[in-house]
Design brief:
This is Adhesin. It comes from Bacillus wiedmannii. It holds the Pfam family ZnuA. The structure is a single chain. The protein has 162 residues and is mainly alpha-helical. It has two domains: 50 residues; 79 residues, 3-Layer(aba) Sandwich (Rossmann fold), CATH 3.40.50.1980. It contains six helices and four strands, in the order H-H-E-H-E-H-E-H-E-H.
């Protein structure tokens, strides 16, 4: 179930193309505020732009080779992936970092995976590993860990991964 109640999907940073546009606006604002550092801002943005372009290309290649366009997620945060890459998110309760699924929810998750012939399940970085293992064992799917950057660990913050 979607835990956000917005008119627009707030997860815009998950689309590399839109994130690149945001980064460019930030770069332009920084250049305006600190013109002495324009060259540094431009250089850093160019490097980031390359990373976003590469990421977009990787997404396109992965989706082009996928047997199904359905993805199972803990909440509907991937609307921009649906728009950009043609994926269809199936949001299901019980697989988020904050939820521990009931037996019925585990059965429902397993049923959904089988009905949609899913090969992979996306789990948030901080979701419960035990839940992922149970679902993987029941369905034969591969588990992919996804850090959507909405939450980070203390270690990530200390090592500037935020």
């Amino acid at each position: 179930e979607d835990e956000h109640h917005h008119d627009k999907d707030p997860h815009i940073w998950l689309d590399p193309t839109l994130a690149m546009k945001q980064a460019e606006k930030i770069k332009n604002a920084l250049v305006e505020l600190q013109p002495d550092h324009k060259q540094e801002f431009e250089k850093n943005f160019a490097a980031l732009q390359t990373k976003f372009t590469d990421l977009d290309d990787q997404f396109k290649a992965a989706v082009a080779n996928a047997k199904t366009k359905d993805i199972l997620v803990s909440h509907a945060a991937y609307g921009y992936w649906e728009q950009r890459y043609g994926l269809k998110q199936i949001a299901i309760a019980g697989i988020s970092a904050s939820d521990e699924p009931s037996q019925k929810q585990l059965a429902d998750i397993t049923k959904t995976v089988k009905e949609h012939n899913l090969q992979y399940i996306l789990f948030e970085t901080f979701s419960t590993p035990k839940v992922a293992s149970v679902i993987q064992k029941e369905t034969g799917t591969k588990i992919l860990r996804l850090n959507h950057l909405a939450t980070i660990s203390e270690d990530d913050a200390k090592s500037n991964k935020d």
